[in-house]
Specification:
Distance between the termini of chain A: 33 Å
CATH topology of the largest domain in chain B: D-Maltodextrin-Binding Protein, domain 2
Oligomer: heterodimer
Shape of chain B: globular
Number of domains of chain B: 2
Helix content of chain B: 40-55%
Number of helices of chain A: 13
Largest sheet of chain B: 8 strands, mixed
Order of helices and strands of chain A: HHHHHHHHHHHHH
CATH superfamily of the largest domain in chain B: Periplasmic binding protein-like II
Number of helices of chain B: 17
CATH superfamily of chain A: MetI-like
CATH topology of chain A: MetI-like fold
Distance between the termini of chain B: 72 Å
């Protein structure tokens, strides 16, 4: 009766569909769905007017501008460098390639606060890299540029790791065919390779954007946290939490959640359309 | 009828394993939460209490805990273990409210404990349970500047000048930073004879010079000392002393003409100490803070002891001529928070 919908092939490598389905379901429920669904529970005694006033507050609006523009910029940079990085990792051989390949994932593994502290020190006007920029009159730590730097850091693995497998599987015969037919290298890239990796690139971009939008651990160190200038959304949420304004914090969080879901949905739709 | 029952049974069989897995998952969750319980409370020959405190007391309580456990063991022949936790005062108070089962709290601002009492976790009259409004020591707010004081900073009026870069944490998220704000407010009120608008303008100027608004006192310290940012750090007196001790070649302390008398407080979290059966230990732990030995350890850690005689012994350390203003001059903490730090209040309007 349930064949085809729920039952599984008895000869699958991992047996026990029921067991694994149960574990998966409980896992996703406890760790993702229930916590997300409980956000609205925080709005106890909070009217829609309060909600609107919180999310349309001037300080919050400026924080949207800071967070969204920095996240978009950082993900844009990541998109470009992510494609280049994935390209050289797949297509070329060079010393320490495996080491570089492994290092891409470091931002996943490193606690973001550790990353934040070292990025801040490096990019401050007294730091190793920031000092060079400071000579040209550019300040990075404690400005929006600093926020972008830390967002690039947390976002880069998403783009590289989305594109890499697609590039690896890409049949080189297409490129050869294009070459034989007289296409030059720019043509080959934009007409043959790019359309193939585009969906993966968009998905990487979407994930990097959603991830950097909510980034707190590293951004809190490198940003100056000045309202209307370098205060990010995650910091506004923290400020509200520390004043025990749970519904206020949940309101902003809901806006961030909606924005992140929107971007992720959009990237999925784009991918489906490409197919 | 019979068939549908059969189908139902079949479905049950099919999902038996799923249900089993879900139940197992539940158990794992609760089991993971269980072992903590064993940490707390009584055991015949040893007892443990948890003290949830704020950032600046780390070094002091490390020494005090050792002293207290010796005292306790001598008195009752029982071992006592004190679990210590530090962080931003507001966050620490929040964690206790959310179920971090502290037996005692020692926090930077009264309102962080008041919140626990309102939630029924601490006594209603916690403030009168121990001497001096339950604050065993006081502290104040001073300036930390770079060696040689290159910007010639002497008082609050110097740091609002153009081109001075200030480091201070955000008073909305940091308890210590509220004292910073009130110290500047005390100066402005005195300077302008209590004129509200001029005082607000003064504070606005001050905060427009703030280069980095860290979320807590310790991270502001890191920004100033570690990253070399800013000309002046508005800091806890004890933290400034601590830095001077560690790095005397690089920094100087400047004492402003007026500052605030900061009163961090302690309280027993009766709801939890009762649950853990540690009421007696919790009470004595806080009482012993007022003993002469403990007061001297405080002074050695640069907190101003509440015992006037012991404070006198250390007058070569502390500047006792500084004019210190009580925060109560500006209202109780509910009023202060509402007036200055709530969403849309005076502090928020500086940035409008």
């Amino acid at each position: 009766m349930f064949k085809g919908t729920f039952s599984a092939d008895k000869n699958k490598a991992i047996p026990g569909f029921g067991l694994s389905f149960g574990i998966t379901f409980a896992m996703v429920g406890f760790v993702v769905l229930v916590p997300l669904a409980s956000i609205p529970l925080m709005f106890d005694g909070y009217s829609f007017k309060d909600f609107w006033e919180t999310i349309a507050d001037k300080q919050a609006v400026y924080a949207y501008v800071v967070s969204f523009s920095c996240a978009a910029f950082a993900s844009g940079v990541n998109l470009f460098f992510g494609i280049v990085l994935a390209w050289i990792l797949v297509r070329y051989n060079f010393p320490f390639k495996r080491l570089l390949d492994g290092m891409i994932e470091l931002p996943f593994a490193l606690p973001t606060s550790v990353a934040g502290i070292s990025l801040t020190a490096l990019y401050s006007d007294k730091g190793l890299i920031g000092g060079l920029f400071n000579m040209a009159g550019i300040k990075i730590s404690y400005t929006p540029a600093g926020i972008v730097v830390s967002m690039i850091f947390v976002g880069i693995p998403f783009v590289v790791r989305s594109i890499q497998p697609v590039l690896e599987k890409l049949d080189r015969h297409y490129e050869e065919a294009a070459q034989i037919m007289g296409a030059d290298s720019t043509h080959i890239f934009f007409k043959v390779i790019f359309p193939e990796i585009f969906p993966a690139a968009i998905s990487g971009f979407g994930m990097a954007f959603a991830r950097s939008l909510g980034e707190y651990g590293s951004v809190v160190f490198i940003s100056g946290n000045i309202p209307y200038k370098t205060q990010t959304l995650s910091l506004v949420v923290m400020n509200k939490l520390e004043q025990f304004n749970y519904p206020g914090a949940a309101s902003i969080a809901l806006v961030m959640l909606a924005a992140a879901s929107f971007v992720l949905c959009l990237s999925h739709i784009l991918q489906i359309k490409r197919k | 009828m019979k068939e549908s029952g059969f189908v139902r049974q079949k479905i049950f069989l099919k999902f038996k394993k799923s249900i089993f897995a879900i139940v197992l998952f539940f158990c794992a969750f609760f089991y993971a939460g269980c072992p903590q319980i064993k940490f707390y409370g009584k055991n015949e020959n040893s007892i443990s209490i948890t003290n949830v405190s704020y950032d600046a007391t780390r070094e002091f309580y490390n020494q005090y805990n050792e002293m207290f456990s010796e005292y306790w063991e001598e008195k009752y022949g029982q071992k006592i273990k004190i679990i210590q936790s530090h962080g931003g005062s507001g966050m620490q108070s929040m964690s206790v409210l959310e179920g971090n089962e502290a037996d005692v709290v020692s926090l930077a601002v009264e309102s962080d404990i008041e919140r626990l009492s309102k939630a029924g976790l601490a006594n209603k009259n916690w403030k009168t349970n121990f001497p001096n409004d339950s604050s065993p020591y006081t502290s104040t707010i001073v300036f930390l500047v770079r060696k040689g004081n290159p910007k010639r900073i002497k008082d609050w009026s110097d740091i609002i000048k153009n081109g001075i870069e200030i480091i201070t944490p955000n008073p909305k998220s940091s308890g210590g930073a509220r004292w910073n704000f009130l110290a500047a407010w005390a100066f402005a009120q005195e300077k302008y004879n209590g004129d509200e608008e001029k005082s607000i303008a003064f504070l606005k100027n001050l905060y427009s010079n703030v280069k980095v608004l860290n979320s807590g006192a310790r991270s502001a310290l890191t920004t100033f000392v570690g990253q070399g940012q800013g000309d002046v750090l508005i800091a806890w007196e004890n933290e400034a002393f601590f830095i001077l001790k560690e790095r005397p070649e690089e920094f100087e302390m400047v004492i402003p003409s007026i500052s605030i008398i900061a009163r961090p407080c302690v309280a027993e979290v009766t709801a939890y100490s009762q649950k853990h059966g540690t009421r007696k230990a919790a009470k004595e732990y806080l009482e012993y803070l007022y003993s002469d030995e403990a007061q001297r350890i405080m002074a050695k850690n640069y907190f101003r002891p509440s015992n006037a005689e012991i404070l006198k012994e250390y007058e070569y350390v502390f500047n006792l001529d500084i004019k210190l203003v009580e925060a109560s001059k500006f209202g109780n903490w509910d009023e202060i928070n509402k007036k200055f730090f709530a969403d849309g209040a005076i502090f928020d309007n500086f940035y409008n």
